[in-house]
Design goal:
The complex is a heterodimer of chains A (291) and B (366).
Chain A lengths: L9 E13 L2 E7 L2 H5 L5 E4 L12 E4 L2 E3 L7 E6 L4 H7 L6 E8 L11 E7 L6 H10 L3 E8 L8 H7 L2 E6 L6 E2 L2 H12 L3 E5 L2 H13 L3 E5 L15 E5 L5 E5 L6 E3 L25
Parallel strand pairs in A: 8-9, 8-12, 9-10, 10-11, 12-13
Antiparallel strand pairs in A: 1-2, 1-7, 2-6, 3-4, 3-7, 5-6, 13-16, 14-15
Chain B lengths: L24 E3 L2 E3 L3 E3 L22 E2 L16 E4 L2 E4 L8 H15 L3 E5 L4 H12 L6 E5 L3 E2 L5 E2 L4 H13 L7 E5 L6 H10 L4 E4 L3 E3 L2 E2 L4 E2 L6 E4 L4 H14 L5 E4 L5 H10 L3 E4 L2 H4 L3 H15 L5 H4 L17 E3 L5 E3 L19
Parallel strand pairs in B: 3-18, 4-7, 7-8, 8-11, 11-12, 12-17, 17-18
Antiparallel strand pairs in B: 1-2, 5-6, 6-16, 9-10, 13-16, 14-15, 19-20
Helix pairs in contact in B: 2-3, 3-4, 4-5, 5-6, 6-8
The complex binds flavin-adenine dinucleotide, flavin mononucleotide and FE2/S2 (inorganic) cluster (FES).
Family (chain A): Belongs to the PyrK family.
Keywords (chain A): 2Fe-2S, Electron transport, FAD, Flavoprotein, Iron, Iron-sulfur, Metal-binding, Transport
Pfam families (chain A): DHODB_Fe-S_bind, NAD_binding_1
Chain lengths: 291, 366
Amino acid sequence: MASQAKTGAVQVTGEVVGLRRAGDYHVLTVTAGAIAERTKPGHFVAISVGGPQSSMLLRRAFSIHAAQSRGVYGGTIEVVFAAHGKGTEWLAGLRRHDPLNLVGPLGRPFALPKEPVSCVLVAGGYGSAPMFMLADQLRARGCRVHVLLGAATENRLFGVLEAKRIAASITITTDDGSLGHRGRVTDVLPDLLTRTNADVVYACGPMAMLAAVAKVSSAHGAYSQCAVEESMACGIGICMTCVLPVIGDDGITRMLRSCVDGPIFQGDRVRWDDVGTVPSDALGAPVIGGH
Amino acid sequence: MIRSVTAQSPSSRATPPAPVIDMSTDLAGVLLPSPVLTASGCAGAGRELDQFFDITEIGAVVTKSIMLDPRSGRGTPRMAETPSGMLNSIGLQGPGVEVFLDKDLAWLRERGARAVVSIAGGSVDDFTRLASRLRHVSDIAAIEVNISCPNVESRGHVFACDPVAAADVIAAVRRNTAPGVPVFAKLSPDVTDIVAIAHSVVDAGADGLSMINTLLGMVIDTDTMRPALAGITGGLSGPAIRPVAVRCVYQVHAALPHIPILGMGGIRTGLDALEFVLAGASAVSVGTVSFHDPSAPARVARELAQALADRGFGSLTEAVGYAHRSHTAVPSARAERVYSPDGTQHPREAVEVEDLDPEFEAGAEG
Ligand SMILES: Cc1cc2nc3c(=O)[nH]c(=O)nc-3n(C[C@H](O)[C@H](O)[C@H](O)COP(=O)(O)OP(=O)(O)OC[C@H]3O[C@@H](n4cnc5c(N)ncnc54)[C@H](O)[C@@H]3O)c2cc1C
Ligand SMILES: Cc1cc2nc3c(=O)[nH]c(=O)nc-3n(C[C@H](O)[C@H](O)[C@H](O)COP(=O)(O)O)c2cc1C
Ligand code: FES
């Protein structure tokens, strides 16, 4: 029956197992029961913030960084977050054993190649959070995994050591040059794609970075998958707040929900320059002179 | 499957056996086994929420307002969080009525869920055509008419804010809808006198009233120093608007006590739902709170049943409009009980109830 599908999302009240710092970020580990079992790389979780009587009504979305379906605590998941607003500040103040209400796993995960191809994983800031689970699965399929991490400063890079452990190569950029190349990931990406003869590019980070990665990948004939970050009110597909213009197989642009049709989209299908707007040729766009 | 309930009301402190109470309700001739529904635009067509609770157990799914043709809606950002609420400016994105019937209504029918179909349009003619299209479609429990849309033939004035335009739409829908299917007019709180609009749509043939839709609001982002929403203004919803909604239901029920009301606006718990029922709602919709707690409609239904049982009601219908009873009337046995937070009931000590002004006044202050 549809309501009992083992692949769908569940709502779980978990318990905080740990909260630690990693540079400018916080890494939260929480028990998550069935969410952990069902998580695939690229899935996200929506966390309610502020406690049961919270005046912050909307859940916050975070990529799932790690999921462990067995262990002393049963299933656990990890998320990596930057505390920069009311909800994330609240999360940063959590203590061990605090209850936390979670809904997940949400969204469509990354698609994995069937063949053992060459893959480049590009991440900006905390965008690297979902990349390690992905890298593990790619490696298990015999893919070569190259990692490119970028951030404003060294403190905003996440998972440099872990990346070194799992990747065939790692490239780092920082805007201020505090680690790796000074500049942006897109400055070094074309070279990296050539050098690694990349077939598939996976990207997660700010929209401007994704747009650039998608363009560069297409130019190199690589297939790209980008994890977008749109503001979401529900995270489960019922409110229509999280839309962006995406071109379908039939060539028609539709305003798709990034929470259920994404957050992973094929890079060459998103109309990056039109994100935020409704392109006039999108299905159901307002007709000039009509209504 | 794990389903959890966030402890939000005293009734969830332990897991009490489900109270034996008749929760069925009559919405203008349509009998629903439960008085808790979803709210239009806050549940899609029920499919997603069905992951979190059994969608067939609630009163009905009120579907996202559907228009004749596909609609892409507005640009993003489409939402902004506000204290205990949110603003939205979706712009009625939807697939158009044909796809809706093929995919969404068909799914609801197959799933065995009751459906209240919400319709929206930009002209009386749009509404007429929508109602005619739905006329021969089976398995529609009721039609909810979203009149909080701009009238393209009247410089974008919202139908719901003009008693004549609102009545024109409702009359057209009523005329083109099968006799057994009730038509609910969904009212906007953004009017000077909601009772006048209610009278007007009831005179035009509305069988029931849904209230309230969102309140027009605005947030300015202090970093960019521009409006936070791409649509500039948006509709405010969530617990922040609940007192406004309860007031609207109370006023309209006082004026039109025989018209069934589907009450909504910020319902988060069973006690919130009870406020609406006491004010005069025969059923309630849970909207924005489903974004916070996707099992909210089912939870609110359980909590409402418990809250009614705790107060000695044997059925939901006994409680509808109960807050309107005269202050001077001899209190019934149940009204004499007082409830302490642990749920125990004591007989009320003799308290002199002052004979308050029975005349209900809107906006007493300011
Ligand atoms: C699919 C997805 C995955 C994400 N993964 C991560 C992650 O792994 N680590 C991380 O630190 N952040 C992640 N984010 C962003 C994260 O959701 C926001 O940082 C967070 O919601 C901000 O909440 P706040 O209360 O601190 O900010 P506030 O500004 O107080 O939030 C107000 C409202 O705006 C929304 N909002 C604000 N900023 C964002 C944003 N950047 N994206 C989406 N919604 C926003 C909030 O959800 C909330 O509803 C992700 C977002 C999405 C959509
Ligand atoms: C995101 C969103 C979309 C909505 N879409 C519709 C809609 O399509 N038609 C409609 O009649 N009301 C719509 N509403 C209004 C709700 O149905 C409801 O009347 C209002 O939000 C108040 O209830 P609530 O506080 O429980 O959400 C929408 C509300 C929200 C938050
Ligand atoms: S966030 Fe509600 S539909 Fe995507």
